[in-house]
Amino acid sequence: MGTITTVAPAYIFTGEQPKTGENYRAALARMITADPQFARATVNYMWAYFFGVGLVDPPDQFDPARLDPDNPPPASSGYTLQPSNPRLLQALTKAFIANNFDLQWLQKQIVNSQAYQLSSRYDGTWNDSWDNLFARKLVRRLWGEEVHDAITVSSGQLPSYTMDTYGTISYAMQFPEPLATPDGASGNITNFLDSFLRGNRDSQPRSGSGSILQALNLMNDSLILTRLSSTGPAGSLLASNINLPNTQLVNNLFLAVLSRYPTTQEMATALGNLSNSATRTQEAQNLLWALYNKVDFIFNY
Amino acid sequence: MIGQEKFTKFVEKYPHPHRTFSQRPDISRRKFFQVAGAGVTASYFALNKAQACTEQVSQQISLQNKAKNVIFILLAGAPSHTDTFDLKVVNGTTPAAMKPTTVNGVNWPMGLLPKLGAQLGNMSIVRSMQSWALVHSLAQRWTQIGRNPSAALGNISPNIGSVVALETAAARQPNQIFPGFLGLNSPLAADNGYFPATYAPFLVVPSTAGIPNTTNANGQARYNTEFQRIHQLDDALRVHSPLGTTVQDYDEFYSAANNLMYNPVVQQAFTFSTADSLRYGSTSFGNACLIAKQVLAANQGTRYIEITLGSWDMHIDIYGAQNPKGNNLFTMCPQLDNGVGALLGDLQAGGLLKDTLVVMAGEFGRTVGQVTPALGRDHLPQQSVVFAGGGVTGGKIIGKTTPDGSDTADFGWSRQRYVKPEDVEATIYSALGINYTTVRCDDPFLRGFEYVPFSSENLYGPIDELWTPA
Q1: ipTM of the shown complex
Q2: This model's pTM is above 0.80
């Protein structure tokens, strides 16, 4: 059958063992958090979350042997340093530790950075291999939770989901669980969110890919269709603006959904469709519907 | 490579990797053997990364090339193999209601799976399989991607179905509008990995209403107007998009979605009558099997269908002695039996069975002999996998377990070792005429993606015995 040996606990990367009498769980927590990789990985995940690409990417493919700019892989190996900006990663890691692993501090550093202020505009032909140089913002599809909340907030009609022990929640961003089922396992909202590939904590990564189901849902789901009413509820987007002159109506819809004014062309197209008084209400609804299906609504750029 | 001892030695020497990338020898390259022979043991393996990945396809293998379609039924939770496909009667434990019967020389639980018992002439059972791991999510994913999910390329490895969808994409006709890879009742299906999103599983839960949101509450005419409005307003950002290719590609999903809207072909394939549902057992799984048959009959480009049935994870009261209405063999097996029984019958009647390889497997097996104190069975590597259709010789048993079913006694195939998920993967590709030794050089790590791991070492391969005479 084999021999039975007692195995003493040891931290996998250094072999360090718990101190005599030290609680094992506490020992492991102490060793993991003392490991610079813990801070490094956290910093990198946060960076990847905001920028769409990590300094090490994919963020869970760290190669500890290729991180130190003062100790790079030998040229003969053919391998290079792994992070796209090793010094930045190093500096952020050090500072994160020095700031007591404060996540808010880390987020402030990232969003206040010059790199984060950049637009996705690039006047020229972009080469995808430049993505990890962060010379422009990378266009990304909104997460399902962001799409849901952008729709409900902009339309002025927040939902009310009862979530087990968490009470009532109105924002998908507040769900306690990546795979929360706000209206049941096979509910509409659940399917809508699932089509945006939420992933789970275990075996499925979250994905920013597109899919046919997303398009079907954005065009036909009740989440959007019920928010196109021109008569109410009170305070809802279309109802509040339907009686304004056409130009103002168009401007307000664009501002609410896309946070920008329409281009000259977009305004001309919209006004043209709204010009017939017999179909004006319907066309206003069509406009709002089309706005929720615009790629610059679904994508963050 | 032949023989379990040789296989075990190889795997021990090159364990499923835990070390970092640059310390990990890239052993699927010929160069490794040259350098290893020279006794180099640097911590950075002396592999010139600048050397391009070579797309490889071995010409020296033969492919079965008998099937066009695959239906992969994942028995999630891992069914007890010695109570189902590899029946072992345990005196004092096996309930009489399971009705162990010898059917054409096969010991079969006719009290649990009568319809499949009648279909044994269409099925071949491999009893010499063992899983690599006993953790559900890891092993389930391993089964679906045909490799270790926690290994170097595991994160980006596509579902077998995505590989099939990609490989059959070229043969699609312009009028075919269904996705190549369909997932029914499979919300946790392994995804397309690094492959383009068009090869991701298209996930549908069976419903008499068909695919949700393929009609618009405002009616078809209004929908068509609205669809025009999108292009009127948004084509500047969709066609030659200044926002980049990701955004541009998104428009293709809209076009494909539009093709599915108000489409009678879609409605026919994805809706079903109560009568048909009844024939398949009136369960969600049965409905999924029914839809699978209809989708294949529609011949609209779907070539791989994954259906999940669970849970088989019966640690407690596996025979339902304490709670007959609970999760036990007597409540689960009828779902499987009615669904797959009707599926095989309908595929055969429709002339589709010879073109469709049906594979049924859990992620591992369960403990044998007497039940546990909880009256259940726990996890065990030893398991079975069932094949039908696609030209597979029916009524075959490949491999034999020990009298209690806890281990393999006779491997039953040419490689003379445990069958692994990677071999099942190779079998599927071979059945479809897809060269399983293919190495693609388009993965994001530029290391090369092998359809079947270690294919240049001939470590895994198809179970060709499935197609030899009985």
Answers
A1: 0.90
A2: yes
